[in-house]
Description:
One of its GO terms (biological process) is RNA methylation. The protein is an alpha+beta fold. Helices cover 27% and strands 20% of the residues. The protein contains six helices and eleven strands. Helix 5 packs across helix 6. Mean pLDDT is 79; it is low at 35-65, 67-89 and 105-113. Residues 21-23, 51-52, 54, 56, 61-65, 133, 135 line the site of S-adenosylmethionine.
Amino acid sequence: MDIKKLAAELGLTCITTYKLDALKAVRKKNGSSDMTTLCYNKDNNDVVVQRSDSKPLGNGVSSTTIVGSNADTTCKENVNNEKANERTYASKADIRKTMRRMRNGPGRNQSLGGRVENSKGFLPNSFDRVLLDAPCSALGLRPRLFAGEETIETLRNHAKYQRRMFDQAVQLVCPGGVLVYSTCTINPGENEALVRYALDTYKFLSLAPQHPRIGGAGLVGSCKFPDGYVEEWLRPGEEELVQRFDPSSPIDTIGFFIAKFAVGSKDDI
Ligand SMILES: C[S@@+](CC[C@H](N)C(=O)[O-])C[C@H]1O[C@@H](n2cnc3c(N)ncnc32)[C@H](O)[C@@H]1O
């Protein structure tokens, strides 16, 4: 995984990676959870969840990363129990896998040792920081090698997919935490409209100022499509709290978008 290689190059040992379907990132409370592993790595501070092997939509650019640092300090005991159980109930397949690893070494993708684990998800409120760098229409990328492939329908599908991912990500951040949403598209339906959805759906979220601030303001208002569908964007006062990078602006960047949400108390909802 690229992120592991990068971490190794930077000499960072605090990165843990997992393969996970971001649409199933939240683990139900009664199941065993990767929280155990997260707690186990708490002293390391950071956790990275990444999967690079899925493509949601035919046209989408891929690779979601959820980055966070674990805020929960109460589950060390679970970790120990879980680890003990793992030792007791190691299956023949697990033993074979371990033997193979010992024979073959860490593997070429894992310069820090150990393969990337498949994750079954994390308990709600597991992280104090989450980055959802969502798969998107990539309309901000330059040069546009495959221009003209998106339709209104595919753009709306991207937006639907992003909302589903956001619904998961928001559950993973604990109160007092931060959730950052980013895309590399200039399509407001995947940017400002996602922010509108987020703020209207999750009243405990608020837009947080960003630093550094290099990009332009977000789009305020709404857009009515010929089929009658109305896409709501930002409301006055919200535009300066997001960053929209426009490839046609004097700043020499590709197009992308960043929104930073502060997560308030979830109890009042
Ligand atoms: C914009 S890219 C993220 C790029 C990444 N942050 C990086 O710097 O390399 C979006 C990624 O989401 C991944 N993705 C799409 N659907 C996913 C899902 N259901 N679960 C996990 N990852 C998914 C795609 O494979 C793609 O790699």
